[in-house]
Design a protein that fits this description.
Blueprint (H helix, E strand, L loop, with lengths): L2 H17 L6 E6 L2 E7 L2 H4 L6 H13 L7 E7 L3 H9 L4 E6 L24 E4 L3 H20 L2
Parallel strand pairs: 3-4, 4-5
Antiparallel strand pairs: 1-2, 1-3
């Protein structure tokens, strides 16, 4: 299986968030070519600012492996992880992050900061950017266009 296969799964998670009125970001944790964790943004639903797709996928993966050390796990996420999620991915010792669209406002994998490759940290993560970027960006754009239309009506 290749990066596109798993990114399509992450996009399915992002669509779940979209359908619930959440910012449409999805994440998939993969270990030895198997999905061991899934997540999509649920900050509104749970009223929890940490309920990002990546955090939820990290928790699911840690539960699946019965370990907080996710050394051989790859995280597929539709949008570049924010600084919070980037820090959590470093702490979890994830092997690689694969993301679609860049996040120029909150990105922690190169757009604003590059937390995951920071040499001062005790762990660095390989980054693969731009996988199915157009699809991920289109979903985000569609969400915010719809949100602005709803806000104009109020």
């Amino acid at each position: 299986m290749n990066d596109d296969f798993f990114m399509k799964e992450a996009l399915r998670e992002a669509q779940k968030a979209f359908d619930k009125g959440e910012v449409p970001i999805g994440a998939i944790a993969v270990y030895k070519n198997q999905i061991i964790g899934r997540g999509h943004n649920q900050t509104e639903q749970l009223q929890d600012p940490t309920a990002h797709a990546e955090i939820l996928a990290i928790t699911a993966a840690a539960n699946a492996l019965n370990s907080w050390r996710l050394n051989d796990v790859e995280m597929f996420t539709t949008v570049e992880p924010c600084i919070m999620c980037s820090g959590a991915l470093v702490l979890a010792r994830v092997k690689r992050i694969i993301f679609g669209a860049r996040d120029e406002k909150f990105g922690g994998c190169g757009s604003i900061f590059n937390i995951v490759e920071e040499e001062k940290m005790n762990h660095q993560i390989k980054i693969t950017a731009g996988v199915m970027e157009k699809e991920a960006a289109a979903l985000m754009k569609s969400f915010f266009v719809e949100k602005r239309k709803k806000n104009k009506g109020n």
